[in-house]
Amino acid sequence: MPGRAAAAQKILTQINRNGATVVTILASPTIQADAPPAIDAARRARRKPIMASTHHRAVAVWLLTCCALIFAMVVLGGVTRLTHSGLSIVEWQPLVGTVPPLNDQDWQALFEKYRQTPEYRQVNKGMSVDEFKGIFWLEYFHRLLGRLIGVVFFVPLLYFWLRRRLDRPLGVQLGGIFLLGALQGGLGWYMVASGLIDEPRVSQFRLTAHLSLAFLIYAAILWVALDLLWPRDRAGDATGPLRRMAWAITAVVAAMVITGGFVAGIRAGKAYNTFPLMNGHLVPPEIFMLDPWYSNFFYNMATVQFDHRLFAWVLAVLVTLFWLKIMRSNAGARVRMLAHVLLAALVVQVTLGISTLLLAVPVALGAAHQGGALVVLTVAIALNHALRRHESIP
Known about the structure:
The chain has 394 residues and is mainly α. Helices cover 66% and strands 4% of the residues. It is built from 14 helices and two strands; from the N terminus they run αββααααααααααααα. It has helices at residues 4-7, 29-34, 37-47, 54-82, 104-114, 118-122, 129-162, 168-193, 204-229, 241-265, 296-299, 301-328, 333-358, 363-387; strands at residues 9-15, 21-27. It has a two-stranded antiparallel sheet with strand order 1-2. Helix 12 (301-328) packs antiparallel against helix 13 (333-358).
């Protein structure tokens, strides 16, 4: 009776001309099925390596570089908005506009176009050419940085694609992100155009859309980069309460960005400059003074600022509870470290927000607060990514 080893082998016997026996042993698929669990696990690990390959790391470094440029773009955009420089360039010239004014004649031509805008007539009437240059250069560098981001994203994308460093799913993801970037450029001009017609300020809806899309593009690029650096181990996905809570935190951060866009759009930060109460009230009495009621969420300074504060309180509670749950779990070292960073980033961001409010939105603090929102989102996304890996399941 053949044993287990004999059953796991296929023996072919041939008789040669001299009567000698030649035995050829061919491995059967049964051997794979009967391998010890430890060996089988090792084979699976070799088939699906956890760490990124060399060319994936190169792609990830490029994507993280794009994230850094977008971060700078968000901060510079905040400075441009707070200094009222965004309406200084009244034309959208993606290619020709790359060249700045080179002589006095060029400056006079640009200044004459600016003098036709509502901002000059209603806000900056009597401004000199030298004063105009101060607001022009901020908007110019903001647009120039946008063009630079487009080049830094597209040229390596084309290179990696031609060198076949991108598989089909990754290529589709990056192609979609590139289209979002092109849409962002058009949306930026659509936003600026709203302030060149009647009122010397851009639409709060277009401003919020422009800001939100920048955060979305940043988040998408960051997620793809993290996927390349730490490839997904599908057998170990975490689907428990910690991961659901981490996504809830990310959703609240996104809501805060949206409400922050409306705060900036209607300049609600210039009102109710007290904390924790709003001019002595927990809920200001004029919160629903506009009709219809839903317009208060977009046009009423009291409502818009109250919403932004409310999401800040919700986020503070959620992040604190999340941190406590992580500390009491057996989560991996990377998750615990990111939980510490998230809590610290939120403390800094809330401090920046309160300081910005109490001081009626100075430029430096306002821009830092806008950048701080992106830092909090970055850590939240990194936590979500880390929680889905098998070594981080609580």
